[in-house]
Inverse folding.
């Protein structure tokens, strides 16, 4: 049975709860009716079901998803714990607060319900005021989490728009402009040097776009967990870091316009660890690229690997402008750059987020030591095989 209603609250003990939709599940028709009346008097819209199967049908067919589920445990066809398990298996219902209202008051029952993820547990006979307080607090908490999520999503959208506006538009403008020049009605008037210059401009812009897109894809794979599956089947024993670090150094320091010197040192007899060579190389490339970006050309960049107890450490040290102490935690966030508006640095701000995720993928971590005006040292600590 599915009933809905809307009435003005008359409870003066607490402030009026915002109008919300509650799914009440109870196999005793009289108790269910009593719950419905209590909730409607307090201003809620109520869906009712007499067992878990009916509740799932309502969740599937309701024009608007309920904001909270209030359920008994002992019911025919599908009991409350089975309903909770079914609700938690659906991603679209994960955020719905779930409260048990039951006569089962043993500690073992309460512990089991909380392990399954129930938000609250109320034992019958219950005080209607206690029930309403529990509902209000859970709905309020849900609103706070949704507000925080919306704020984070808004900031994410702003960051993406900033990147699209600058990081994508700039190289794309070069590609289009040089292509237009090559597409002149009289191409014979272009000399070899001009032709080569235009082609280099197109190649440079295309390479920058390719790197941005690849970084976006990798970051999404790391953030969503897809990269973990790839890591599990690609990981292998690694004890020789020379080819990985040499390849990363060549990728960064053999690019046109890079005048820094990279000092590479690898300790002997490093312990073996399990890892993915491609993910490690890309993480080191990001650390080296940042070192080049934020350091003057006369300051060497140091890349070294060493053992430290039960970890293998890969460190990139620069002599750049350093990171203010109050920024040290934020630098790991996706699309974040220190004072982007002031410095106008190139890049999407995804590099350090990728480095942290790659380190975590290997069961390790990345740490930073930095001093403003002196430089920074980023270290990936990777656990050795046991």
């Amino acid at each position: 049975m599915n009933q809905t209603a809307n009435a003005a609250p008359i409870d003066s003990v607490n402030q009026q709860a915002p109008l919300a939709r509650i799914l009440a599940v109870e196999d005793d028709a009289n108790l269910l009716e009593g719950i419905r009346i209590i909730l409607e008097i307090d201003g809620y819209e109520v869906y009712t079901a007499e067992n878990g199967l009916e509740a799932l049908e309502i969740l599937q067919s309701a024009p608007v998803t309920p904001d909270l589920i209030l359920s008994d445990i002992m019911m025919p066809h599908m009991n409350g714990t089975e309903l909770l398990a079914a609700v938690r298996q659906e991603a679209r219902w994960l955020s719905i607060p779930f409260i048990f209202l039951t006569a089962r008051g043993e500690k073992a029952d309460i512990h089991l319900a909380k392990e399954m993820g129930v938000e609250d547990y109320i034992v019958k006979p219950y005080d209607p005021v206690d029930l309403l307080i529990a509902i209000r607090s859970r709905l309020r908490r849900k609103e706070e989490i949704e507000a925080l999520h919306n704020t984070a999503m808004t900031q994410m959208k702003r960051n993406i728009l900033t990147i699209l506006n600058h990081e994508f538009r700039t190289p794309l403008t070069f590609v289009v402009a040089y292509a237009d020049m090559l597409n002149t009605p009289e191409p014979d008037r272009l000399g070899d040097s001009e032709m080569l210059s235009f082609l280099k401009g197109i190649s440079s812009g295309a390479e920058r776009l390719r790197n941005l897109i690849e970084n976006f894809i990798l970051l999404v794979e790391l953030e969503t967990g897809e990269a973990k599956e790839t890591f599990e089947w690609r990981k292998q024993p690694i004890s020789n870091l020379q080819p990985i670090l040499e390849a990363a150094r060549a990728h960064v320091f053999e690019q046109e316009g890079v005048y820094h010197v990279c000092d590479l040192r690898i300790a002997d007899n490093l312990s073996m660890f399990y890892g993915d060579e491609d993910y490690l190389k890309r993480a080191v490339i990001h650390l080296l690229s940042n070192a080049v970006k934020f350091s003057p050309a006369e300051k060497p960049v140091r890349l070294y690997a060493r053992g430290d107890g039960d970890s293998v450490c890969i460190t990139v040290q620069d002599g750049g402008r350093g990171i203010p102490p109050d920024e040290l935690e934020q630098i790991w966030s996706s699309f974040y750059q220190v004072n982007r508006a002031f410095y106008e640095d190139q890049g999407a701000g995804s590099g350090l987020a990728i480095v942290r995720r790659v380190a975590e993928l290997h069961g390790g971590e990345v740490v930073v030591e930095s001093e403003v005006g002196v430089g920074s040292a980023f270290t990936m600590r990777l656990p050795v095989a046991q």
